[in-house]
Amino acid sequence: MKILVVDDDDELRAIVCFALRNAGLLALEAAGAADALAMAEAERPSLVVLDLNLGREDGLELIPRLRATSAAPILVLSVRATEEDVVRGLDLGADDYLTKPFSPRTLLARVRALLRRAGVEAAAQPLVAGPYSLDLERRLLSVAGRTAVRLTPLELRLMQLLLAHAGETVPAERLIAHTWGARGDGDRQLLKQLVHRLRQKLEDDPAAPVRLVTASGAGYELRLG
């Protein structure tokens, strides 16, 4: 289940995404309106968490633009707490409004409530693509014909994004940002090491991978065949 987080504050965006990912949700990140619109169209998120202060852009103006192409619930998360902002945000199409500072537990409760209202279960359901099945709650990865294996938290986050784009090349920088967070400690060398460990659990012969393959100079692909 994909949640798009739109906030130009790297640190706050990282906190929100960390809370969502720890709850077994796939958090996608956008720092501005253009990125948010492009990602909403490409990824079709189940819900959008939107800050109103996006540098020179006003998040309120983004709400109807998102609403024009998506029925996903929009949760406004903003330091702007005036009644005028709240009423305008809801009138423009937002589904809920949460002011900063906030607690991660309250954020997750609001997210789950909106997903339930939209008819989407927020409980972590297994992610399935081709021969792969990922149990987010138990961190178990199953591949057809192999015994299920338990993943570490970092391996789980990496596998989440690879599964969401199975059959496609996912750029290395995007994998790093998702796995370690936008301002985390990840880099290409750490990603390479993490991929190596994941291949030990995925491949019949990790030295000659056929499932999790490298796209030279670009990233990695989880093959469906």
List keywords for this structure.
225 residues; alpha/beta; Rossmann fold; 2 domains; 5-stranded parallel beta sheet; 4-stranded antiparallel beta sheet; 8 helices; 14 strands
Explained architecture:
This protein is of the alpha/beta class and 225 residues long. The chain folds into two domains: 2-117, Rossmann fold (3-Layer(aba) Sandwich), CATH 3.40.50.2300; 127-222, Orthogonal Bundle (Arc Repressor Mutant, subunit A), CATH 1.10.10. The protein contains eight helices and 14 strands. The chain has a five-stranded parallel β-sheet with strand order 2-1-3-6-7, sandwiched between helices. A four-stranded antiparallel β-sheet has the order 8-9-10-11, covered by helices on one side. Strands 12-14-13 form a three-stranded antiparallel β-sheet. Helix 1 (10-22) links the parallel strand 1 and strand 2 (26-30). The longest helix has 15 residues, at 188-202. The chain is elongated and about 60 Å long. The two termini are 23 Å apart.
Structure summary:
With 225 residues, the protein is an alpha/beta fold.
